[in-house]
Amino acid sequence: MNYREQLKDRQRIVIKIGTSSLTHPTTGNLNLIKLEKLIRELVDLRNQGKDIILVSSGAIAVGKKAAGLKERPDRIAQKQACAAIGQCRLMMTYQKLFGEYNQIAAQILMTKNTMLEEATRVNAHNTFQELLSMGVIPIVNENDTVSTYEMQFGDNDTLSAIVAALVEADLLILLSDIDGLFTDDPHKTSKATFIDLVDHMDERLMQMGKASTGTNVGTGGMATKLTAARIATESGADMVIANGKDVHVIHRIMEGKQFGTLFVAHRKEEFTIADYVEAGY
């Protein structure tokens, strides 16, 4: 079975992009050329009749830059203040760029509480459904401004998988600073072997990501991506980890080309979002 070819038929797609893929490494400023290309990719998929949801990091990094801080904030209040500043600026940029293609975008901010309570979970699902039926592209982020440590998802890899499960997406694409899944950390050893396809998640794979770390601007390493893969595939969505250095990789993945690592969906009949959130994934 050619799993890659089947990606062409996916209709509801969640795409997550990390902070390191949105900003210039030397200055921390937004990479506007890359952002413009990303929006063009997303709108073109929308023009094909597909439902698109973007999970975007970057609020704290943008707020930190605007506030003139040199180091990433470590105090909760400082992080939340930067998120409050950055979320406005980030959404303003997204709205302007989407507006160039006459595409409406909407902002949705979430915490774990949204998923734990049935009423709020159903309400969030209905809101997503309504936005998508209107042809809107929702832009999702964790509500860093008000969420406490206990109510944080902690990283947008996990958040994007939860969102994919919530909206019953059939594909999740994680854009990262790595080409996909390797047998070891390719940043540290040349012996790392690339894994093109994961047909089934198991404990051995989960352990492979435990020692990995992300970049100094993000919060997720390979462990969080494998957790996201488990949630997404068990909810019924395929997932691809790919390098966000060139965002044109999005349409290449959708064309069935060999980019990134593909995790094949294996829906669990007993899957429920609340169970995963309560168990800490």
From TrEMBL:
Major location category of this protein: cytoplasm
Residues holding ATP: 16, 176-177, 219-225
Pfam families, per database record: AA_kinase (PF00696)
UniProt cross-references to SUPFAM superfamilies, sorted A to Z: Carbamate kinase-like
This protein's record includes keyword Cell wall biogenesis/degradation: no
GO terms for biological process, alphabetical: L-proline biosynthetic process
Family, as annotated: Belongs to the glutamate 5-kinase family.
The protein, known as: Glutamate 5-kinase
Lineage: Bacteria, Bacillati, Bacillota, Clostridia, Lachnospirales
